[in-house]
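As noted in the main text, all predictions were made from sequence alone. Below is one such record, for Putative 4-hydroxy-4-methyl-2-oxoglutarate aldolase.
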Amino acid sequence: MTVGNRIFLQRNLQAAPYVEAFRTLPAAVVADCMSRLPALTCDIRLMSNPSHSVMCGLAVTVKARSGCNLMLHKAMDMAGKGDVIVVSNEGDRSQALMGEVMTTWARQRGIEGLVLDGSIRDIEGISKMDYHLYAAGITPGGPFKDGPGEINVPIACGNIHVSPGDIILGDYDGVIVIPREDAAQILEAAQAYLIVDERNFALAQRGELEREWIDPWLAGKGVEVIDGRYQG
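Prediction:
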């Protein structure tokens, strides 16, 4: 087995029963139930114009050499309907990993979305496309196809660990990763948290949002409140 240059055809699909339930939840609500730590870096942002705000599916992971899309091409042929392809690109931004033709192909195949820790091109067309494509930059420079690389191995994308079969949830705020082993527990917590969040939104709309917690919280953090002006 050639480590660093291999393709695994199978994934752990234990989280599949939870995908549709997570699709009803905002990424921010789920992230709050994960100690606010599952979000990809904010430079990985939505580049397209989907008619449905939420992207949710199981991860097909790609570990690509900087600026190379050979394994991405293979992953797009492997991925099934509803999957989300997540690409690690060694943080490179100098070469576009894909453009409008590949994005159109992914959409036609029913792939739920793509998340790239790298750049794209053909933004004029992609920005109007009814699809979920998240990427970290834009450049006209095209990709190489030399390898090596891997498919369906653990990767890091946007500073977050992603295993094949994890749930990938994205909306207009960005993308989060839900570990497959924890999906049931996180879903239960997020559904309960959404009720609280919607209640607070309704209170804010009426001008009745509870604010009594702030001063005791500040006191608990040792903040000194001074009845006076700063002299300096």
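The chain has a mean pLDDT of 97. The longest strand covers residues 55-64. These features were considered when defining construct boundaries for the mutagenesis experiments described in Section 2.9.
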